[in-house]
Input
Amino acid sequence: MPCLNISTNVSLDGIDTSAILSEASSQVAKIIGKPESYVMIVLKGSVPIAFGGTEQPAAYGELVSVGGLSGDVNKKLSSAIATILESKLSVPKSRFFLKFFDSKGSHFGWNGSTF
Output
């Protein structure tokens, strides 16, 4: 179950967050090779973030997946999500960090059990 959690200091008021969630969900599923029905995207806006000493638009993300991650996959995911944030929220690619976690199924709860 890939879960992408993104926090940004950009206000989401007046932003079509559904488009961001949909596009991110589709890209994560496609790039990792998992069914989109297992993908979760969490987007939090107006989070106080300073990056490089300024509070200009920035974002931080964490992606957790049970398998499917690798150096090549992570580069593609980083590029795809950075492109979405740049086009939809005007967060420059240079002001976005994305951390990856490849988790064991037994460390991920779902449906009252684990994977």
Observations:
- The first strand starts at residue 3 and ends at 8.
